[in-house]
Write a structure and sequence with these properties.
mainly alpha
Length: 288
């Protein structure tokens, strides 16, 4: 797929937005698209590191898939064993590239890197304030590439509060650190606009426009979406009962990530196939 010029025109738009940023224009000030600012910053970084070509952008997408599958392997190995991790990683690679849009470099590919990196970080580390501060940064970084993943950020916050009382593994200071990491990264994306006197552009583009879009394309929950949610819930319930007590907390966290992503897609309005790239790695882990 490296040498096909246009697979999904969204990819072309992201490249143009990234180049506009390199030309010295903040996102939304010269060119405009309905995505958070770190999406365009990532494509700008791809151009800087790999060059101005479609092949370079597709190579960047390949690296994103590799990193995502590597994180999936680490999580699968930690909760299960090496075979679980390898199977989940291979399944991730196959599923995220099976659909047409998965063969381009989409924001879903990019967002999966910090999303699965955040899950790996939280599953394999003791939840100290420092760990949770970085967790907030990683998950919010994913959200500032794909805004729908804000559901995951909120879901993990609720899970941390639950864990404080249920498992006694999270301190109140850790929850505060998680929030500080999250809001701190949001503030960093806002500061350039504040300095340039374009703070209203940031608010309209990052906050109001996505809310308006979601409301304008809101659909009744279709049978396909409902079936997807029911199947995932049934599968997770069956697996939860079979998961060893040692790893039920980690598996519960995986459920939070998966359900947060699924709910965000269901609530986001019209369902495009490439949205599912965000849940394929989590489904692969669950299935493995």
């Amino acid at each position: 797929y490296y040498f096909v010029d246009v697979i999904n025109w969204d990819e072309s738009t992201f490249i143009l937005m990234g180049q506009s940023l390199l030309d010295g224009y903040l996102p939304y000030t010269k060119l405009w698209d309905l995505k958070p600012p770190l999406a365009f910053a990532t494509y700008a970084l791809f151009i800087i590191l790999l060059g101005k070509s479609i092949v370079a952008i597709r190579l960047a997408g390949t690296l994103c898939v590799f990193l995502t599958s590597w994180f999936v392997y680490l999580i699968g190995r930690y909760i299960g064993n090496s075979s679980t991790g390898i199977f989940a990683a291979i399944l991730t690679i196959l599923t995220v590239t099976a659909i047409d849009s998965g063969q381009a470099t989409m924001t879903e590919h990019v967002a999966c890197v910090p999303l699965l990196g955040a899950l790996t970080w939280l599953v394999t580390r003791k939840m100290t304030p420092g760990v949770l501060f970085l967790e907030g940064i990683l998950l919010t970084g994913a959200t500032l590439v794909r805004l729908n993943l804000a559901y995951v950020v909120v879901g993990v916050g609720i899970w941390l509060i639950y864990s404080k009382f249920r498992y006694q593994t999270v301190e109140f200071g850790g929850i505060v650190a998680y929030c500080l990491g999250s809001f701190g990264l949001i503030l960093l994306t806002y500061l350039p606009y504040l300095i340039a006197g374009d703070s209203l552009i940031w608010f309209n583009s990052v906050v109001l426009a996505p809310l308006s879009y979601a409301a304008s394309v809101k659909e009744v929950v279709t049978g396909k979406k409902l079936l997807l949610a029911c199947l995932i819930f049934w599968m997770l319930n069956q697996l939860w009962q079979k998961t060893s007590a040692k790893h039920q907390q980690e598996f519960g966290l995986l459920q939070v990530f998966l359900f947060g992503a699924v709910i965000s897609i269901i609530q986001g309005g019209e369902l495009y196939e490439h949205y599912c790239i965000q849940i394929f790695p989590l489904l692969a882990l669950t299935f493995a």
